[in-house]
Amino acid sequence: MSHLPALILAAGRGERMRPLTDTTPKPLLVVQGKPLIVWHLEALARDGVRDVVINTAHLEDQFPAMLGDGSRWGLRIRYSMEDRDHGGALETAGGMAQALPLLGEAFWVLAGDVFVPGFRFEASAAQAFVESPDWGRMWLVPNPAHVPQGDFALTLEGRVQRKDLAAAGTPAYTYSTIGLYRPEMVAGIQPGEKAALRPCLERAIDAQRLSGQLYTGPWVDVGTPERLAQLNATP
User: What angle do CA 64, 57, 7 make, to 5 degrees?
Assistant: First the structure.
């Protein structure tokens, strides 16, 4: 199969990372020698993905200036520039809906501000998703210290559930911000509309259209200057 395209979410303001993000978008902050988003681009290229869309808003001109058209990684990068086109960031689901014309019938989505160097964007996982009836498949991670209660429950059968409605004893995990999605996940959201992803995910759960699996490799939400410094102090 041809590899699915990927959307990297890079539009956020990064308030908790200030003052670093006053002059640099969070995905362009350097982690262990290279911008955070470049780790993603290298991993996508390594695993055969060729088409990448990056949605931008905060300091968005820095992205094409630094990353160009992606050819140095063997990628084709296109930009969904939300600040230029809509005057600001559209949030996750709004950003997905806005970028749909560049993405097609199924696609990877990943946040530009997580460090997950070992994740594999496997064609087999994408193929299995395309052949399923699901609107989304999300990778969950063991709960970090800053999300001790987790985001969603995950059954042994690999179905994602609302924590408060899951059977007793069903473990809850944290959304890694990596997933495979179809346009149905953001159905009803108009281009240019601000919209959060959580209600879309809950709608998919209620329709039994959201699967998931646990990822246990290294994963850091680079959400604070302290976490960034800790990563950069790691040999």
Answer: 70
φ and ψ of 194, to 5 deg = -75, 130
- Domain coordinates in residue numbering, the chain: 6-233
Nearby residues of 105 by Cβ (< 8 Å), 6 or more positions away: 130, 182, 183
Q: How many CB atoms lie within 10 A of CB 104?
A: 13
80 Cβ contact partners less than 8 Å away, ≥ 6 residues apart: 53, 54, 55, 56, 95, 98, 99, 102
Fold (CATH) for 6-233: Spore Coat Polysaccharide Biosynthesis Protein SpsA; Chain A (3.90.550)
Mean pLDDT (10-residue bins), the chain, 235 residues: 88 89 94 96 97 97 97 97 94 97 96 96 96 98 92 96 92 97 96 95 97 96 92 85
Question: Is-contact 106 181, C-beta < 8 A?
Answer: yes
